[in-house]
Design goal:
By secondary structure, the chain is mainly α. It has 7 helices and no strands. α6 packs antiparallel against α7. It is globular.
Length: about 140
């Protein structure tokens, strides 16, 4: 099951700028450089995996796989960016993962015309929050 999810979620792709890719990036840039988008937002257009991703009984397991895969990269980046303690950064991390998954679910895991707009908007929203927290 984990191998199937790794493939469906593109968890094996590298993500050099976790959670911060949307800041200042155009929609066209995000469309053509999708490996820069966090894993929880790359999962649209999974085709053969859409039924799996839409299964509400598997949602927590799938989100858990994303968390496990991304935690070691993303948490240090959030801590560095916000200067928050690890426990608070973990809360933000889980919030972003769950929220991104919910938005992808609303799109039925299809990267329709509105998907890049939503990803960019959510990334800008998160970035503004990270910047605000870093000034405390």
């Amino acid at each position: 099951m984990n191998d199937v999810l790794n493939d469906a979620l593109l968890l094996t792709e590298t993500n050099p700028v976790p959670f911060f890719a949307g800041n200042g990036k155009s929609l066209d840039y995000l469309k053509s450089n999708e490996s820069l988008v966090p894993a929880c937002q790359r999962i649209g257009d999974a085709g053969k995996y859409q039924k799996l991703l839409m299964d509400p009984d598997l949602s927590e397991y799938i989100i858990g796989r994303i968390v496990v895969n991304e935690r070691d990269t993303v948490l240090p980046a959030v801590i560095e960016k916000t200067h928050l303690p690890r426990e608070d950064a973990e809360t933000l991390f889980r919030y972003v993962i769950h929220g991104s998954f919910a938005v992808n679910r609303a799109h039925n895991f299809v990267k329709d015309e509105k998907w890049p707009h939503d990803v960019q908007m959510l990334n800008e929203f998160a970035e503004a929050g990270y910047e605000r927290l870093s000034r405390k």
